[in-house]
Each structure stands twice: as C-alpha cells, then as structure tokens.
Design a protein that fits this description.
Distance between the termini of chain A: 73 Å
Shape of chain C: globular
Order of helices and strands of chain C: HHHHHHHHH
Chains: A mainly alpha (242), B alpha/beta (197), C mainly alpha (225)
Radius of gyration of chain C: 18 Å
Number of helices of chain A: 7
Number of domains of chain C: 1
Oligomer: heterotrimer
Largest sheet of chain A: none
Number of strands of chain C: 0
Structural class of chain A: mainly alpha
Largest interface: A-C, 31 and 33 residues
Structural class of chain C: mainly alpha
Radius of gyration of chain A: 24 Å
Number of domains of chain A: 1
Shape of chain A: elongated
Number of strands of chain A: 1
C-alpha cells in the first residue's frame, strides 16, 4: 500500500482524535456537538475554492474552444465543489438541529449554500442533456461563468447585508473567535482535507483522460488503423461528365 | 493561406462517438473550381458541407478561408435547412439581406427564382420546390465567393434544374462552387470530385 | 457592397421575432394564459387570508419568474425545432442575435408582468403605496430575467429535453435575483417602506447590467459550435 495514503489516513485519524480531545466550546447549547465545526468550516472553504477553480477552468474551456482535456478539469472541479457542498450542507443541518433545535432555519448562509448547490445540480443537468462532447464542454462552461455572479452574491454579499439577520457568526475567524485547540484543529483539517480534495481532483481528471483515451482507441480501430483518408479529391476528366 | 485559394481544408476529420464520418480530407480550391462531393446515402456529404461552412467543429484538421467575417462570402443551401413559416418570401430576403448587410435586391431575386406571384406568401404555404428555390435565392443573395449546395436539384422540376445550372455557371466564374450530390447531371458543374467512402 | 450596422442587425432580429410572434400568436397566447392562470391560482389559494407585503411580493415575483422560464427559452428553442438555426448562424453576428432576441424577451416579459400585476392587485385587493419603486423594480427584474433566461435558452437549444431543461437551469441562477426583487417590492407594498426599496431596485438594475454585459459574450462562445 502507498506510504502516502497511510500517512494521510493516520493524519485523518489524528485530527479526529485531536478534535475529540479538545475542550468543549463555550457559548453553544450543546458544547460537545459543536465539534462538528471542525469539519463543517473547512469543507465550506474547500467548496468555495473548487467553485472558483471550476469557473477558472471554464474560462479556459471557452478559450480553448471546448478542448475535452480542459473540460475534464472544469468538470472535476465542479464535481468536487458539489461533493464538499453536500457534506457542508449535511454537517450544517446536523449542527442546526443540535444548536438551534431545527433541521432547517432558513438562515441566510444555509439558504445561500442551498442555492449554490442548486446551481451545481443545474450545471450537471445541462451536461447530461448534451451529447456532443465539444458542445457539452462549451455550453456548460458558459453556464458556469454565468453562474459566478449569483454565486459570489450568495456566498459573499447576501449573508453580510445589514438587513439580513444570520444565526451564523460573521467574523469568528477574523475577529479571533476561534482560539487554542479549536483554531489549530480547524486549520489542520483545512490543510489535510484540501490535500485530500486535490488528490481526488487529480484522480478524477485522470479517469476522464483514461475514458477519453479509450474512446480515441476505439475510434482508431473503427478507422481500420491504416490511416487512409476517407476520400481523395481528384480532377474530373471530360469522360466523367457524361 | 496560399494566394488565390478561396478554401483550404487540411486533414479534416469528423466523428460521432467512436465512428468516423470522414477523415484526413485535404484539398484546396481556387476561383473557377467546382468540387463535387459524391457518395452513398449516409457517407457524410451533408456533414462535410456543414463542417466546411463552420456549422460543425471538426474533430481533426482545419479549414481556412481568406475572410474574417464569412457572412457575405460563404453561403450554404442545405436540404435540412428550414424557412421561417410565418415570414413571406420577400420578408425572408429582406431579413437576411439586412443581417448580412447586402444591397436590397429582393425583387430581382424573386424574379430570378420565378416566384413573383408567391412573393407575399408565407413560407409555410410554399411547395417543397418553391422552398428550395427560395433557399437558393437566399444563398446567392450576397454574391458569395464560396457557394455550397446540398443536392440542389432534389425537389426541383426541369425549370428549377435550369435555374440551378445558371447559378452554378455564374458561381464558377465568381468564385468556388461545392455541391454534394449523387445526380449525374449536377456533376457537370464540377472540376474536381471527392468521393466519400 | 453595403455593410450592416449593429443597430440595424439587432432591429432586424427584433422585428423578425415580433412579426413571427404576432402572426402565429401561439407563444404569446401560451405565455399569457400561463401568467393569468398562475395569478388566479395564487390569488385563489390566498383567498380569505390577509396578505402581508412580503408574502404578496413573493407571490408576484414567483408568477413573473415562472412565466419567464416557460415563455422566454422559446426564442431559441423554436429556431432549432423549426430548423432555421443554421441559416441564422450563417447570416447574423452572435451579439446581434442575442440582443435582438433578448430585447424581444424583455418586451414580452414586461407586458406579461404588467398584466400579472394588474390582475393580482384586482384579485387580492393588496394596496400599492410606492408606484415608482414597484415599476422600476419590476422593470429591472424583468430586464435581468430576460437576459439570463435568454442565455439559458441558447445553452439548451440543442440539448435533450430542452424545454424542461431551460427552466431547470435558469431557476437556480435567478433565485438571488428574486430575493432582491421581493425585498424591493415589499417596500412598495408597505405604507412607509421606501428606503430599503431604493437599494433593492439599484441591486436589480445592477444585476441586469451585469447579465447584459456578459450574456452576449457567453452566447457568442456557444452559438456557432
């Protein structure tokens, strides 16, 4: 077994144990259950990282006129964004029930993450509806770029509007609200899961490349492999005109 | 692009999934040349025309034409093109003339294609042959240097086929003609043949 | 040979849309019927209850939103269904096509929103206090909706299940817009709520400006491929 995977596995176990050894948080209804923040916060940040990565790769898709190899990266980034958004949502729902006694509170941050998830579902629905590879790459890239404006608004603007009341504290990290073990565990999980997410991303891109290579190989076999053109232009002679 | 060439295709290939429709096609066309694309049904003639017109992106190779904005320089009349059912013959010519920035010659073209009595008829009320004539008129409207026709005589009567013959003769003097056809009569307009296998 | 200006190309596309729609009417009638039935349904469902300003503005926006996603994608879906898309691709510049069809969608939606609003106020007896905020907010929202849904219609024009898919991908993009719209319109339905409405209306028009700034470029990238 790969030594790197063993090290990562041990690191995950280590940070989990560290999280449970950290003293309970202050100011929560269920102070022990607040430990879910050790995973909820890093996953939320990783979601945002992959949302930006997906948008960036989508710009490159349009610049490359729908090159499949560039599209693989855009698709993989959005898949990882969706995966981590789902985990953020699930951990958030559990936290919401434990702390605020409701599975769903229509809290602005909860709601904005839900809307972002819907946008990601729509991105994949669009991809599923287009069979031509280049068209699928270009059209889904255009959608991803168009979605950037509402995503930026939902994540960075809406929860911070003065008229909007949120159960989520708005500046816990910047204001030094996370201290001691809590801060170190959150940071350690962020670094660790960013590494894992990047590994998943590269694996996913590799799988796409393998599928593409197989399709190209099938196409070469269909061609007969001998490289002949399927038609040659020849001049028409007078006898051909009759 | 070489001087004088109006279209150059190099290593052109298009596939759907793993199946190649055509592959490694290379040719160059200059003013006065006519390319006849022949082949059995399903060989990819219409697909090749669409790729040459820029409506489909080839999976391999490239196509070069010496025009940055091809709207007035390249035209295609294809079997699967439709007309706007609720626009009249005249309105079609006016609309596409305005979009392409052509001079207004709707009356002249309507006369040329033999539809003066139907000029104010909706496209939905035209016969198949009349629609084919209108599509020909739309194709020649900008006096394009590159004219592509997909089985132009398919729905036409004898008078219609003479119209096609006249258009092809004019086009070869003006620029390049590309016709996809299995009609032996239409092959006489070409100087070169490409048979898709 | 003459050259065409952007304005003449855009007007040609816009004129074509109007003429086609006025002659066949099926799209207008369908959209109009949907808007009217939706308003009647929501007004009926809320019959007997006093509608708060927030609830009323939410109902109006939901009706406008669903009318938009039902009616507007048609501007592009019809081109592919009719088989006229390729001729348009060969003849028109993408920006002109987007602006021409988008402006038609905006006009259609604005007319629908006006009818929807009038019917809603008649059926529910909700009072309108801030006419200016209401009209500007509705117009800004319709402008943003028209641009975004037009783009989504173009993205799905050659996809499977395109009629349903167009709405499915447009709705998530438009939810933040609806939140702004509801916030703005609520203040117009309250007797003393003007201030917050101005900010929301500015937000709606900014959203519309962003959509119309970037929409044509994204459309040009997908149109010819």
């Amino acid at each position: 077994m790969n030594i790197g995977k063993i090290v990562v596995g041990l690191a995950v176990v280590g940070t989990t144990i560290w999280g449970f050894l950290a003293p309970p948080a202050q100011g929560f209804m269920h102070e022990d259950l607040a430990r879910i923040l050790f995973w909820h916060l890093p996953y939320a940040f990783i979601t945002v990282i992959f949302l930006f990565a997906g948008a960036w790769q989508s710009i490159k898709v349009l610049r490359s006129a729908g090159q499949p190899t560039v599209d693989f990266r855009a698709e993989a980034a959005n898949e990882l964004a969706m995966l981590f958004a789902l985990i953020t949502m699930v951990t958030g729902i559990l936290f919401s029930k434990a702390q605020w006694n409701a599975w769903w509170s229509w809290d602005p941050r909860q709601t904005s993450f839900l809307f972002v998830l819907l946008i990601l579902f729509a991105y994949f629905a669009l991809r599923a509806g287009i069979s031509d590879r280049v068209k699928r790459a270009v059209n889904s890239a255009a959608y991803c770029i168009a979605a950037l404006l509402p995503i930026l608004f939902l994540i960075f603007v809406l929860p911070r509007l003065p008229q909007v009341q949120s159960l989520h504290p708005s500046n816990t990290i910047a204001g030094g609200g996370l201290k001691g073990d809590y801060w170190y565990v959150v940071l350690a999980n962020f670094v660790l899961f960013t590494f894992i997410a990047h590994w998943l991303y590269t694996m996913r891109v590799k799988v796409s490349h393998l599928e593409w290579d197989r399709e190209n190989r099938d196409a070469r076999m269909d061609d007969g492999g001998h490289g002949a053109a399927t038609g040659v232009v020849r001049p028409l002679s007078l006898s051909d005109e009759n | 692009m070489p001087d004088g060439a109006l279209m150059r295709a190099e290593g052109l290939g298009k596939r759907f999934g793993a199946h190649w429709i055509f592959r490694r096609l290379t040719f160059e066309l200059e003013k006065g040349q006519g390319l006849m694309i022949v082949g059995r049904n399903g060989a990819g003639k219409s697909t090749l025309l669409k790729a040459l017109a820029g409506l489909l992106t080839p999976d391999e190779g490239k196509i070069e034409i010496p025009f940055e904005d091809p709207r007035r320089h390249l035209a295609l009349s294809a079997l699967d093109q439709s007309l706007y059912p609720h626009l009249t013959v005249r309105e079609h010519l006016v609309l596409f003339g305005q979009l392409r920035g052509c001079e207004d010659r709707a009356d002249e073209l309507i006369e040329r294609i033999g539809l003066p009595e139907a000029s104010d008829r909706y496209a939905a009320r035209l016969s198949t042959g009349m629609k084919s004539r209108l599509k020909l008129a739309l194709a020649i409207q900008p006096r394009p240097e590159i004219l592509m026709l997909d089985e132009p005589g398919a729905a036409l009567d004898e008078a219609g086929k003479e119209l096609v013959a006249g258009i092809c003769a004019e086009q070869v003097e003006r620029g390049v003609l590309i016709i996809a056809t299995n009609d032996p009569d239409e092959k006489r307009f070409g100087t070169h043949e490409l048979e898709l296998t | 040979m003459e050259s065409s200006s952007w304005s003449s190309e855009i007007l040609s596309v816009l004129r074509k849309e109007f003429v086609s729609e006025m002659r066949q009417k099926s799209g207008l009638l369908t959209a109009g019927l949907f808007a009217v039935v939706s308003v009647v349904a929501v007004a009926f469902a809320s019959f007997g209850n006093k509608l708060t300003a927030g609830f009323a503005s939410g109902l109006i926006w939901v009706t406008v939103l669903f009318t938009a996603v039902v009616a507007i994608p048609r501007v592009f879906l019809l081109e592919e269904e009719q088989g006229t898309g390729d001729m348009l691709r060969l003849s028109a510049r993408p920006h002109a096509v987007f602006w021409g069809k988008g402006l038609f969608a905006f006009a259609q939606l604005l007319a629908g929103a006006a009818v929807t609003s009038l019917l809603f106020f008649i059926l529910t007896s909700v009072a309108l206090y801030g006419v200016g905020i209401y009209v500007l907010g509705l117009a800004g929202g319709c402008a943003a909706l028209a641009g975004a849904v037009t783009l989504c219609g173009a993205l799905v024009a050659q996809a499977a299940n395109r009629a349903v898919l167009a709405g499915a991908i447009a709705l998530p993009l438009l939810l933040p817009l609806i939140a702004l719209g509801v916030a703005g319109m609520r203040t117009a339905l309250e007797p003393d709520g003007a201030q917050g409405g101005v900010e929301a209306v500015l937000g709606l028009w900014s959203y519309a400006a962003a959509v119309w700034a970037i929409g044509p470029h994204l459309f040009a990238a997908v149109w010819k491929r």
